[in-house]
Structure formats: structure tokens, C-alpha cells
Amino acid sequence: MATMKIPMTVPSPRVDADQLFKAFKGRGCDTSVIINILAHRNATQRALIEQEYETKFSDDLRKRLHSELHGHLKKAVLLWMPEAVERDASILKRSLRGAVTDHKAVAEIICTRSGSQLRQIKQVYNNTFGVKLEEDIESEASGNHKRVLLAYLNTTRYEGPEIDNASVENDARTLKSAVARKHKSDDQTLIQIFTDRSRTHLVAVRSTYRSMFGKELGKAIRDETRGNFEHVLLTILQCAENSCFYFAKALRKSMKGLGTDDTALIRVIVTRAEVDMQFIISEYRKRYKKTLHNAVHSDTTGHYRTFLLSLLGPNV
Q1: Phi, psi at 144, each rounded to 5°
Q2: Which of 38, 50, 171, 179 would bridge 224 by S-S if both were Cys, CB 3.0 to 4.6 A apart?
Q3: DSSP letter (8 states) at residue 5
């Protein structure tokens, strides 16, 4: 469930556009007004505000936000503005073709989205950037990591709840052999099962693997694979089991230790605020005995903090 709160009575897009225009006038801008409006409008409402702003003022709202805002707040607000598919495509482009390739962000987007979402992302990516997503992955990823990403993008998976117990047991045995022998040919078996099977099936395989062999499948993967290949397999497995815990853990990592990984913090909060952030907040509290709101409050400051906390909703 979403967490960002929309007012009971929402002003018209024209009124919101007028208020934003006024907030930009003069030296500097009234950042509080920008946050109070944009952090409390859903994707459809934000799109209508953008249309109204351009129609009335012959100006691009995103470009104006880019010129008026600064630092992490600017990054967060600009990532918030597009609808989900356009946003995911832009995250993938920056993660693949930026100054430093962010393989974890690529895995996060690709391996946590449904088949229909991935098909839309690929289309928007091609239309927006004039290149296929698969071509950028071919260029920036390598080895088994690349093979997993491409297979996951292009395989049509069953997404329903039904499983076949015989197939589950067979996959558990096959995976045991694949991670035990360490032959290169076995990597393809891992890739096929992890990218071809439904999430429900993988959860059943994980449970069956534990029952049959007395070991966690995740630990077996960690023991026998390395680097980005290991990470993407574990991402698929963790998201099949509990995607909200996966995102709670990603948020925890972004704020743990010295410094904050603001790129990851922004990405997870912005991409999940209209989807399942309420459940992520619950997982965070259950796993780490601290509210996500308090963690974000401790690691951020100023208007940037206000914006992220607005997306998280009330601290209850």
C-alpha cells in the first residue's frame, strides 16, 4: 500500500500550477510550497499539473525544478515527477550508462518488476533513448551476470499462485547438483531456473531445498557464486520470498555505517511510495526495531528530509 498522503480535497491542476509558478518567482524559490504540493499528489495528478504548467506558462516544469532546486532534494523531486515506467527506464539508463555502472540498481529494477512492467519498461527505454535496454546491458554487464539479466528481461514467466510439487522437487535436486559441482555448465542451470520459474515456484523450491538437504538455498548460492552474479541471483530469490523485506534491507544498507547512500535511499523511497511502502515500513520496524521514519530523520536534513518523510507518510 502507498504511504504518501493526498489531501481530502485536492486543488485543481491549474491552482497547483499557479502556486508552483509563484513559488519560483523572485530570488530563490519557496521550497516548502513545492514540497507541500508535489509530495502530496499521485502520478496522475502530477502529470496533469505538468500539462497545466506548460500550457499556462509555456515552460517545462521539470526543467524549472531542475534549475531552482539543489542537491539531494533536486534528485529526489525530479525522480518523483515521472510515472513509474518512465522513472524505471531513466534509473536503468543512468545506472547502466552513468559515470559508474550501478549493477545493484539495475538488478533491483529488473528483478523486482513483473513481466508486464518489464515489457513496458523496454518499450519506453527504446522510445526515449533510441537504443534497446538489452543492448546497454550487453555493453555494460558481463558473464553470467549479463546472462541472468537478459534472460530475466526476455523470459515470459507464469505469475500465478499454482505450483507443481514434482517440478519443485526436481528443481531442488537440480540446484543441489548445480551448486555442488562448480562446473561452468552448471551456471546455465542456475540461470534457467532462477529466470524461468515463477516467484511462487521459487519460494517452494527454497523450502523444499531446506527440507531435503538441511541447508538454505541462499547460503548455497553465496558459497558457490561471486560478485554481481551472486547478487542478482539472491535478489531474485529474496524478492520471490518477501520483496518488502528486500526493500527494507536495501534502505537499511543505504543508511548504515558512516555516510548515507543517498542515491539508493532516494531510489527506494521514491519508487515504492505509491506501491507498497506501508508494508516496507512494517518490515523495517519488525526487522530492525526502529521506525524507518526515525532512521531517515537521523540521516537527512532540511527540505530533503521533509520531502522524503512526506513520501513516507505519518510516523505511526
Answers
A1: -65, -30
A2: 179
A3: P
pLDDT band at 179 (very low <50, low <70, confident <90, very high): confident
Instruction: Give the CA distances from residue 308 to residues 18, 49, 196, 240, 276, in Å, rounded to whole numbers and listed in that order.
Output: 24, 20, 36, 27, 15
Listed in sequence order, the residues at least 6 apart from 158 whose beta carbon sits closer than 8 Å to its beta carbon are 198, 201
Measured on CA atoms in the order 30, 33, 35, 38, is the torsion positive or negative? negative
Run of H or E including 92? helix 84-97
Q: Per-residue pLDDT tens for 45-57?
A: 999 999 999 999 9
CA distance 136 to 138: 5
DSSP 218: H
Measured distance CA(309)–CA(295) in Å, rounded: 10
Element (DSSP H or E) covering residue 292: helix 292-299
Question: pTM here?
Answer: 0.96
Count of Cβ atoms closer than 10 Å to residue 122 Cβ: 18
pLDDT reported for residue 232: 98
